[in-house]
Design brief:
InterPro entries: H3K9_Histone-Lys_N-MTase (IPR050973), SET_dom (IPR001214), SET_dom_sf (IPR046341). The protein is built from 14 helices and 28 strands. By secondary structure, it is α/β, with parallel strands linked by helices. The chain has three domains: about 90 residues, no CATH class; about 250 residues, no CATH class; about 220 residues, SET domain (Beta-clip-like, Beta Complex). A six-stranded mixed β-sheet has the order 16-15-17-26-27-20. A four-stranded mixed β-sheet has the order 2-9-10-11. The chain has a three-stranded mixed β-sheet with strand order 1-3-6, covered by helices on one side. Strand 18 and strand 19 form a beta hairpin. The chain starts with 10 loop residues before the first helix and ends in a 38-residue tail after the last strand.
Length: about 725
C-alpha cells in the first residue's frame, strides 16, 4: 500500500524508475519487495533518489544477507562457532526478554546527534547505522501501543491526544509493570548537562544548561476530567507549585525534587517516544531544541508500525483545498504520512483538535485583517499562504523548518495543557523562515535548594506575624473588599495590612494592593501609576472559599491560547493573544528559574534582559527566563503597553511555602491577534539617542536601554 502522498499509480511507473537505477535497484528487490513497496516510495521521485541513498540501500541489503547466512549456519551446525567475520552483526533475537522489557518500560534515551550525510535520510530502513545501539530498532517484543502488521492499512483512525469522554475511542488497560532495574542507554546528548547538584548551590547560582532525556514513563497517558468539581479538585490538588534541583526530601507532594533539571517529554506523548526510539526519519534541524524529539516514524515505517486498534493521536490539523476535508498530522510520525480525512470523522474521533483548529482559523482571520489595515500583508503573503494550506511540496519534505515550528508548538502546548493552561503556537511569516527559539519550557518556576530554604524562612516569618494579627482580630482588618466568595471570612486584607502595606525602604509611601471583582477582573485605580510598588493577594483555603473563587485566578485552570510570532520589523519574536482579553484579565504567569542574589552577585554571567525583579515579596529574588521559561519571555517593550507585571502572594494551602510569583495582567482590552506588550523601562529613563530604536510606534523618538549580555538573546 502506498503513502497517501505518493503519486505513483502503477507498477509500471515504479518499474520504470527501477530501470533508471540499474542493476542495483533490481538486486535490492530480490526476495524483499515488489516495485510498489512502501519502503521504496521515495524512489518514485528520481531527482531525490541520490547515489548516497542507493549506497545506504545496498548496505542494508548486504547486512540482511549476512544475518540470513548466520542464521542458516546456526540451523545447520548448532555447535559450530560463527565465523569472526560475522561477529560484529548482533542478532536482535539474541537479546533476552528481560533486556527487551527493560528497554521497553524503563529505557531512558537522551537526544543524540546523528552521523548522517547531507542528503535527508527520511526513507531509510530501521537497521541502518543511525547512532543507536544494535538491536534497539528491531526488538523481539513490540511496543505496547504500536501493533506491527504485514499490510499497511488504507486509513488510520485519528483520536485526540488527550483522552476524553467526548471522543469515540476506548482507553487501553495498562500492562502490569515489571520490577527491573533502570538501565542507562549510554547515548550521547545533544544538550549540555546542568552543573552537579552539589556545585554552586549558593546565592546567585543558577542552572546553566539543560539536557534532553526521553523516558517512556514521562510520556504515559493520563486522563484528567476537569469538567466536574471532583475532577477539578483532584487535578488542582496535585498540580506542582514549583520544581527544586537538589537532594533533600520535602513532605509536600506539590513540590518536586530532582537531582538534575532536564527537558523531558510531556504526558500523553507515547507515540512521540516510540518515534524517537524506533523511527527512521531523522529531523536534523531539530537537534538541540530541548524536549523536542529528533526522530519520527516515516512512510518507510508504515508497514511495521502503521496500525493501532485504538487509533492514532492527532498532533495537528491543517486546512485542505478539498471541501469538507482536512490534513491530519499524527504524533510521532513525519509529514510524509499525513492523511486526508473528512471533517465529520475528525469531529467524532478528535473533537478537541477540531476546536483548536477553529480557534486557529479565527486568529488568522484577525491577524490578516490587521496586517491589511497596516499595509503589510503583501510583503507576507507567502507566509500567510503557508499557514493556510499545506502544500504537497511541504508535506514531502520533513526537513522543512515549518515542521520544526509545528513540533515545538505541539510539545510546548502539551506541557501547558497538562498544567491546565492554554495552547502555544510558534509562527514565522517570513518567506525564508528563521529558526524557532531554543529554550526549555516550564509552566512553573524552577529553583535550587538554597532558594527554597530562603522561601521557607520568609514563609515562617510571615506565619508568625499573621498568627499575632489573627489573635488581635481587629474588626477593621476583616473582610476582603473584593469579589471573594466568602467576604466575611476572607483573610486577604489582613495579609496585606500585616505583611506588605508599609515599604521598609520608603516609609512615606505605602504599597498598592490590587483586588479582583466578582468577575475575576483586576480593578485598577483611576489614576494608576505603573511605577508604584503593587501586589495581588490571592485567596487561600484559610479564607473559606472554593477553588472557583474569582480571587484565585493564578491557582485555577486557564485556557487562553497565545502565539509566539516572529516580528519581521523588529527582527525578533513577539507575543500575540489568541483570544480577546478584557481589562484586568490575567493573561499568564511569568515563569523561569527563581534565583536569590545578594547585592554583589547581581546578574552574574547571564543575560539580564530576561530578568524580572521582586520589590514587595522579597528584595533579591529574581525570575530569569534566559534558559528556562514560558511564553511570557517573548513580550516586547512598548512605551504605551497593554499589559503589566504584578507580584502575587499565593499560598493555596496553609502548609505551602510562599513562592514569589509574577503575573501579567491586561491594562486595557486587547483584541484577538493583537501584540501583548509591557513597559520594561519608564519613558523618562529611555534615551533619545542610542543604537536600538524603539519600534513600539512609528513616531516613537526613544531608544531602548542597552542591557549587558543582550547579544545572547534567542528572541532575535
Amino acid at each position: 500500500m502506498r503513502s497517501p502522498l505518493c503519486k505513483c499509480t502503477s507498477e509500471a511507473k515504479s518499474s520504470e524508475v527501477a530501470a533508471q537505477c540499474g542493476p542495483v535497484w533490481f538486486g535490492l528487490l530480490d526476495k524483499q519487495a515488489n516495485p510498489t513497496c512502501l519502503l521504496y516510495v521515495n524512489a518514485c521521485q528520481p531527482p531525490r533518489f541520490k547515489m548516497e541513498t542507493r549506497l545506504l540501500l545496498i548496505q542494508n541489503w548486504i547486512s540482511q544477507r549476512l544475518k540470513d547466512f548466520k542464521n542458516q549456519l546456526k540451523r545447520q551446525e548448532p555447535e559450530q562457532q560463527v565465523p569472526d567475520v560475522l561477529q560484529h552483526e548482533k542478532d536482535p533475537g539474541e537479546n533476552s526478554e528481560n533486556e527487551m522489557e527493560m528497554e521497553q518500560e524503563h529505557g531512558e534515551q537522551e537526544q543524540q546527534v546523528p552521523q548522517v550525510p547531507e542528503q535527508q535520510r527520511h526513507a531509510q530502513h530501521a537497521n541502518e547505522e543511525d547512532g543507536l545501539p544494535h538491536g534497539m530498532e528491531e526488538e523481539d517484543e513490540e511496543p505496547v501501543d504500536l501493533e506491527p502488521v504485514q499490510d499497511v492499512p488504507v486509513r488510520r483512525t485519528a483520536r485526540s491526544t488527550r483522552r476524553s469522554s467526548h471522543q469515540v475511542a476506548g482507553v487501553r488497560r495498562k500492562r502490569p509493570r515489571r520490577e527491573v532495574p533502570r538501565q542507562n542507554a549510554n547515548l550521547p546528548s545533544t544538550g549540555h548537562t546542568t552543573q552537579p547538584e552539589d556545585t554552586n548551590n549558593t546565592p546567585g547560582s543558577y542552572v546553566h544548561e539543560v539536557k534532553t532525556v526521553f523516558d517512556k514513563e514521562d510520556a504515559e497517558e493520563i486522563e484528567d476530567n476537569l469538567e466536574t468539581e471532583a475532577g477539578l479538585a483532584k487535578f488542582l490538588k496535585k498540580r506542582l507549585i514549583c520544581m527544586v534541583v537538589g537532594k533533600k526530601k520535602i513532605d509536600n507532594p506539590r513540590i518536586k525534587i530532582v537531582r538534575q533539571y532536564e527537558a523531558r517529554l510531556p504526558k500523553n506523548c507515547q507515540e512521540a517516544y516510540q518515534g524517537q526510539r524506533k523511527g527512521s526519519s531523522w529531523l536534523q534541524n531539530q537537534i538541540r531544541h530541548p524536549g523536542v524529539p529528533i526522530k519520527k516514524f516515516s512512510s518507510a515505517d508504515l508497514g511495521k508500525f502503521g496500525q493501532s486498534k485504538e487509533g492514532w493521536s492527532v498532533q495537528s490539523i491543517f486546512k485542505s483545498e478539498t471541501p469538507n476535508h482536512v490534513w491530519v498530522l499524527f504524533v510521532g510520525w513525519d509529514s510524509t504520512t499525513m492523511e486526508l480525512k473528512t471533517t465529520a470523522e475528525i469531529k467524532k474521533t478528535a473533537p478537541d483538535m477540531v476546536k483548536k483548529f477553529e480557534k486557529k482559523n479565527e486568529f488568522w482571520k484577525e491577524v490578516e485583517k490587521m496586517y491589511k489595515e497596516k499595509g503589510l500583508f503583501d510583503s507576507l503573503e507567502i507566509g500567510f499562504a503557508r499557514e493556510k494550506f499545506v502544500t504537497e511540496e511541504m508535506a514531502n519534505d520533513p526537513s522543512n523548518r515549518y515542521w520544526l515550528y509545528q513540533d515545538q508548538s505541539f510539545f510546548h502546548a502539551m506541557i501547558q495543557e497538562n498544567y491546565g493552561l492554554g495552547a502555544v503556537q510558534y509562527v514565522c511569516l517570513k518567506e525564508e523562515m528563521v529558526p524557532p527559539p531554543k529554550f526549555t519550557y516550564t509552566p512553573h518556576n524552577i529553583m535550587r535548594e538554597y532558594v527554597l530554604e530562603k522561601c521557607k524562612a520568609i514563609s515562617d516569618d510571615y506565619q508568625k506575624k499573621l498568627e499575632e494579627a489573627f489573635k488581635k482580630g481587629a474588626r477593621e482588618l476583616k473582610g476582603n473588599g473584593g469579589g471573594c466568595e466568602t467576604p466575611h471570612t476572607c483573610k486577604c486584607k489582613i495579609v496585606f495590612e500585616t505583611l506588605f502595606r508599609r515599604n521598609p525602604q520608603q516609609p512615606r509611601w505605602n504599597r498598592l494592593r490590587l483586588k479582583h471583582n466578582a468577575d475575576g477582573l483586576l480593578e485598577f485605580p483611576v489614576e494608576f501609576d505603573r511605577n508604584n510598588q503593587r501586589i495581588v493577594i490571592e485567596c487561600t483555603d484559610a479564607c473559606g472559599c472554593s477553588m472557583r473563587c474569582p480571587c484565585r485566578p493564578l491557582q485555577q485552570v486557564r485556557r487562553n491560547p497565545v502565539i509566539i510570532f516572529y516580528n519581521f520589523l523588529m527582527n525578533q519574536f513577539g507575543l500575540k493573544t489568541g483570544v480577546s482579553l478584557r481589562e484586568g484579565d490575567l493573561i499568564f504567569e511569568y515563569t523561569g528559574e527563581l534565583i536569590w542574589e545578594l547585592d554583589g552577585q547581581k546578574r552574574r554571567g547571564r543575560n539580564s534582559s530576561y530578568d524580572a525583579d521582586f520589590k514587595v515579596l522579597g528584595d533579591g529574588f529574581v525570575i530569569s527566563s534566559w534558559k528556562i521559561g514560558n511564553v511570557a519571555r517573548f513580550m516586547s517593550h512598548s512605551c504605551n503597553p497593554n499589559a503589566i507585571f504584578i507580584e502575587v502572594y499565593v499560598q493555596q494551602n496553609p502548609g505551602d511555602p510562599v513562592i514569589p510569583r509574577i503575573a501579567v495582567y491586561a491594562l486595557r482590552d486587547i483584541k484577538n491577534g493583537e501584540d501583548v506588550t509591557i513597559a520594561y523601562w519608564d519613558k523618562d529613563d529611555m534615551p533619545l539617542i542610542g543604537d536600538d530604536k524603539c519600534l513600539c510606534a512609528p513616531d516613537c523618538p526613544r531608544y531602548l536601554v542597552r542591557v549587558e549580555d543582550d547579544d545572547d538573546d534567542d528572541r532575535k
